[in-house]
């Protein structure tokens, strides 16, 4: 199978994620879109690893997963806290820096 | 050189008094003046004790030193805070503490109605301590500390009644003009350090032999600038008249007897520099000659008794500076005149204070008159001081002033003739204005204000006046009989050969007495024969008008220094506002403007930030792609 197809899939997933972050208001959905982008990047890394025949890409994919796990922990905690205090998960409502 | 452990007490006693009185505050109101007087007196007794020790030793063993502590120690450069008492210092120590103690006693009564009497005594003690440090320091740097100290005490005491704006201004004026002189002293110290590597008197004296004349002349001129500032000599003389704003005991102690003579001390102490720098020495003589005429002329026109005496002080210090500028033959006579002047001028100032005390603090002599009957003791003591300053034999001034006139005549050549004539003429004018003061104050008809009730001052005031009057009568004879003072001081100065004799002492005395007689006679005709107007006449000649305005010295200073200085400041302020403040504010304004422009993209919506990041990233990648293709 042509390795380039994996890269096309990766680009597609990343684009979906990016559009989701920009377009969607629900913080949870935005969050999932970020995860989607991270995983798209992971897919690229792993693909490049296969193409080049070394392990660098795979190792970086593991790093990304660790970072993503941490991000989920902190990010979800923030979202829950904001929801508790503001009764809303819309990120457009959380614009106190401007006001 | 011998060491001593008791020199420090001379300074420590009055300094402690000042500290106690200032720190204890109002609690010491009841006994502060007594403590201050006692400490000043004990300092005097320490001085007498030192004198007795000194007399008992041979000439070369007389100077004693005491190291207080190591002050500056940088590599090989070391300066100790050390005191040195030698034949010259002891004269000053006894004058300062002796006259100082008498004036402390006088002030107990004079200031008794002042709510701040304790503060006054604290400052007086501070002055005594600073002045003693000035004359006891063994290096120019130690002297400088005392020099600044007396300046501070003078400033505090001139402005003692600083609730009156004019008095506060007078103290500021004195301080600022003294700064110019202080700058001269610091330059002299710097030049001495740069060229000789030392600032101690003994070190500089040693190094003066192998230092270039140019450097010595520079040091000499800078020392002269210092002396003109502190001693109110031309061209820095303008502050002394205004300094009379201070309480009269201050005028007697600081602005007549002691502090203003510090310049004479400085020049005499630096004799090894001036002897090796003839140009600087000539300038000293010129400054002295100008000032003695300057002061005498101002004295003839002043109606304010204290200002007339201040002008006289200026003139008499001119004599001393002139004497000190005549070289080795003149130093001892300058010091002798300084000591006798300390007695008679302090006595006369205290007399003026006594008159003011009885006349509701009136200082205008035109409102005095006929006070002889009401203040017999003041009249007698003032009169003895008057005879002393005139130089009538056998009073003190006869010995000291005639010596300076004689030395001036005998200094050789045209210079000697000119100086001799100036000093003679000065003596005549002195006689005129002092007689004027006597006549206006004590004789003639009374021209008092209605509420004036003149009365003799209490004994606490007239006793110091009486003691100073005794000094005015006897000090000249005692100091010059058998050349006592000249021999006492001679180890300090370079030995000089026989004096050239242009005029013999008898002739000089005769000439001086003739001038004095003429001066007295003119004053009698002008003020005793004719009625004295109670209000100063305004239709007077241009010369009188100018003399009343202190020979335009203030106007000159204002036109030449103050107004250009103010213009310069105004320009600098404008420049500061436009250029420096403009640059600083401009930076701020740029930041502010760009900030408010960029604020538009800060919407506060997370999604818009995310979109911007995305656009940025895409643009970046596109740019890289374009470049690498």
From TrEMBL, chain A:
GO terms for cellular component: NADH dehydrogenase complex. The chain crosses the membrane at residues 6-23, 28-48, 60-83. It holds the Pfam family Oxidored_q2. One of its GO terms (biological process) is ATP synthesis coupled electron transport. Keywords: Membrane, NAD, Translocase, Transmembrane, Transmembrane helix, Transport. GO terms for molecular function: oxidoreductase activity, acting on NAD(P)H. It is found in: Membrane. Its main location: membrane. It is a multi-pass membrane protein. Belongs to the complex I subunit 4L family. NCBIfam families: PRK05715.1-2, PRK05715.1-3. This is Unannotated protein. It comes from freshwater metagenome.
């Amino acid at each position: 199978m042509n390795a380039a197809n994996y890269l096309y899939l990766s680009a597609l997933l990343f684009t979906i994620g990016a559009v989701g972050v920009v377009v969607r208001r629900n913080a949870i959905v935005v969050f999932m879109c970020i995860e989607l982008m991270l995983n798209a990047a992971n897919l690229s890394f792993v693909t490049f690893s296969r193409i080049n025949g070394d392990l660098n890409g795979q190792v970086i994919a593991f790093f990304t997963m660790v970072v993503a796990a941490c991000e989920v922990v902190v990010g979800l905690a923030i979202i829950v806290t904001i929801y508790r205090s503001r009764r809303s998960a819309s990120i457009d409502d959380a614009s106190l820096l401007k006001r | 050189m011998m060491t001593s452990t008791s020199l420090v007490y001379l300074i420590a006693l009055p300094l402690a008094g000042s500290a106690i009185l200032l720190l204890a505050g109002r609690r010491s109101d009841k006994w502060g003046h007594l403590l201050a007087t006692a400490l000043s007196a004990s300092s005097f007794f320490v001085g007498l004790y030192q004198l007795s020790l000194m007399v008992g030793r041979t000439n070369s063993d007389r100077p004693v030193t005491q190291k207080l502590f190591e002050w500056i120690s940088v590599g090989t450069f070391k300066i100790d805070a050390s005191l040195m008492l030698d034949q010259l210092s002891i004269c000053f120590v006894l004058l300062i503490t002796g006259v100082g103690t008498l004036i402390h006693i006088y002030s107990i009564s004079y200031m008794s109605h002042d709510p701040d009497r304790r503060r006054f005594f604290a400052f007086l003690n501070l002055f005594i301590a600073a002045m003693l440090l000035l004359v006891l320091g063994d290096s120019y740097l130690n002297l400088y500390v005392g020099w600044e100290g007396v300046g501070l005490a003078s400033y505090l005491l001139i402005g003692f009644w600083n609730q009156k704006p004019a008095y506060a201004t007078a103290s500021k004026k004195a301080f600022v003009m003294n700064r110019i002189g202080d700058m001269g002293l610091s330059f002299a110290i710097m030049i001495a350090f740069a060229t000789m590597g030392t600032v101690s008197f003994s070190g500089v004296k040693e190094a003066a032999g192998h230092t270039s004349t140019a450097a010595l002349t520079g040091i000499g001129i800078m020392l002269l600038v210092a002396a003109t500032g502190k001693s109110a000599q031309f061209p820095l003389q303008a502050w002394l008249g205004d300094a009379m704003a201070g309480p009269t005991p201050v005028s007697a102690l600081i602005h007549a007897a002691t502090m203003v003579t510090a310049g004479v001390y400085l020049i005499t102490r630096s004799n090894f520099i001036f002897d090796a720098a003839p140009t600087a020495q000539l300038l000293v003589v010129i400054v002295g000659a100008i000032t003695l005429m300057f002061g005498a002329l101002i004295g003839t026109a002043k109606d304010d008794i204290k200002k007339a005496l201040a002008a006289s002080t200026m003139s008499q210090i001119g004599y001393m500076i002139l004497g000190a500028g005549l070289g080795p033959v003149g130093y001892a006579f300058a010091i002798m005149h300084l000591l006798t002047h300390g007695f008679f001028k302090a006595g006369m100032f205290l007399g003026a204070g006594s008159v003011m005390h009885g006349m509701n603090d009136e200082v205008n002599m035109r409102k005095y008159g006929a006070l002889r009957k009401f203040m017999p003791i003041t009249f007698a003591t003032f009169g003895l001081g008057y005879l002393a300053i005139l130089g009538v034999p056998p009073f003190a001034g006869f010995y000291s002033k005639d010596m300076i006139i004689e030395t001036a005549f005998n200094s050789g050549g045209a210079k000697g003739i000119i100086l001799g004539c100036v000093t003679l003429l000065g003596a005549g004018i002195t006689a005129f204005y002092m007689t004027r003061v006597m006549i206006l104050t004590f004789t003639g008809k009374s021209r008092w204000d209605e509420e004036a009730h003149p009365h003799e001052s209490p004994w606490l005031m007239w006793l110091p006046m009486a003691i100073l009057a005794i000094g005015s009568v006897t000090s000249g004879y005692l100091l010059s009989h058998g050349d006592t003072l000249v021999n006492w001081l001679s180890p300090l100065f370079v030995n000089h050969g026989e004096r050239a004799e242009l005029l013999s002492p008898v002739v000089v005395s005769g000439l001086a007495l003739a001038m004095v007689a003429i001066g007295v006679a003119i004053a009698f005709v002008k003020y005793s024969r004719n009625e004295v107007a109670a209000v100063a006449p305004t239709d007077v000649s241009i010369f009188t008008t100018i003399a009343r305005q202190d020979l335009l010295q203030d106007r000159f200073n204002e036109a030449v220094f103050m107004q250009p200085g103010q213009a310069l400041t105004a320009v600098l302020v404008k420049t500061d506002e436009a250029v420096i403040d403009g640059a600083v504010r401009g930076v701020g304004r740029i930041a502010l403007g760009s900030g408010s422009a960029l604020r538009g993209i800060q919407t506060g919506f997370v999604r818009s930030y995310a979109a911007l990041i995305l656009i940025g990233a895409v643009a970046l990648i596109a740019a890289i792609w374009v470049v690498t293709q």
